[in-house]
Design a protein that fits this description.
Layout lengths: L7 E4 L5 H12 L3 E6 L3 H10 L7 E4 L5 H15 L4 E3 L15 H28 L3 H4 L5 E3 L4 H22 L8
Parallel strand pairs: 1-2, 1-4, 2-3, 4-5
Helix pairs in contact: 4-6
Amino acid sequence: MINFTNKNVLITGGSRGIGKACAKLFSDLNANVIITYKSNKVEADKTLQSLNRNNKHSSCQLDITKPADIEKVFESVVENYKTLDVVVNNAGVFVEHKINEISYNEWQQAWNETISTNLTGVSNLCFFCCTTYDTTTIWQNCKYIFPWGISWRARSSCLWSQQGRFKLDESISSSCTCAI
């Protein structure tokens, strides 16, 4: 078992479902957990309350489709934790739409929201992870970036992460590895 004691773990979409389960797991492994949520702070607070109280946990609002939101989250991580060891790229949406009951414009809106969150948003976070901060500051001990999610969503983000891996490896002298 990998030792996560005092490691800092960022989990996007960490307030419910798979993200919440990941938060609980990393917390049980004694990691400091930072979860993000898009709009439901109440659920995020409930998730934080359910985590191991021996470590430092926090939540941040994040719309993963907005690069400015991603930047704010990373600024908060640097300010409060100094480094980041694991990123679980879990945020995603499912916009239910019965194609035989909606207009073309409604279908396009559902499609665009799904793609902008589940593909572009995941890629935004991977790109930001790989390019934005002075790597000696935030990625000092980074070992893993997990592009999580439903298989069709994950395939695209994994491809991006594998490309990002080379940038991370060059920048950090192979001290950070993207895992799929």
